[in-house]
Amino acid sequence: MKKVMLTVLSALVLATATVSAAPSVNGSTGLIDNPSADVLRSGQFAVGYYNLKDGGVGVFNMNIAPNLELGVAGFRMDNHVSNDTLVNAKFGLAPETVLTPGIAVGVEDISNSRERTCYAVASKALPLGFRIHAGVGNGRYNGLFAALEKTINPILITGNDVFPATTLIAEYDGDHMNYGARMSIVPGLKVDGGWRDSKWYVGMSFTN
Fold first, then answer.
1. Does pLDDT of 96 surpass 70?
2. In sequence order, what are the beta bridge partners of 170?
3. Which overall architecture, per CATH, does domain 2-207 show?
4. What is the DSSP secondary-structure string of 68-82?
5. Other CB atoms within 10 Å distance of the CB of residue 192
6. Where are the domains of the chain?
7. What is the rounded CA–CA span in Å between residue 178 and residue 201?
8. N or C: which end of the chain has fewer CB within 10 A?
9. How much is the pTM?
């Protein structure tokens, strides 16, 4: 029975991690604005574009060493004043397991184009498709940040796989509450949309 329970819990962890592996609006692998403890594996890269109400941002991340990802987020805003390119890095200190959370540390905007921010974050999958994230950081995080995800498995709802696996996200980024949904269209390809910083956003990303 213990082996069966561990197998089920492991499947829940892996399924949730697979749906969540995508870049955030700010570039680092994560949620809407917040990073998660997920780090791209060896040979992986992630690319995406988010259309914001007042502009857009293109993001690219890649694994450059064991447990280390490096990426950029290029903001191109309608006012042409906030056009910045942010360089981000994240290092995984501990992988997520059935019993323990994943832990990572990172730096956003290394060149201080907007506001250099250092952070530490932990992520843990829970039963029934839930996953929690909590972290602390300076800069734009202004202390504590946190998020809750709920993955909706189409097989459990419809009995087939016509409806894409969808993750609902609610996060506090240290200043605002953000809400969104991330749909896994095909393996690696995800479509995002929601409410960020009191404004709508939509986007698409691919992780190999």
1. yes
2. 148, 179
3. Beta Barrel (2.40)
4. EEEEEEEEEETTSSS
5. 24
6. 2-207
7. 10
8. N
9. 0.85
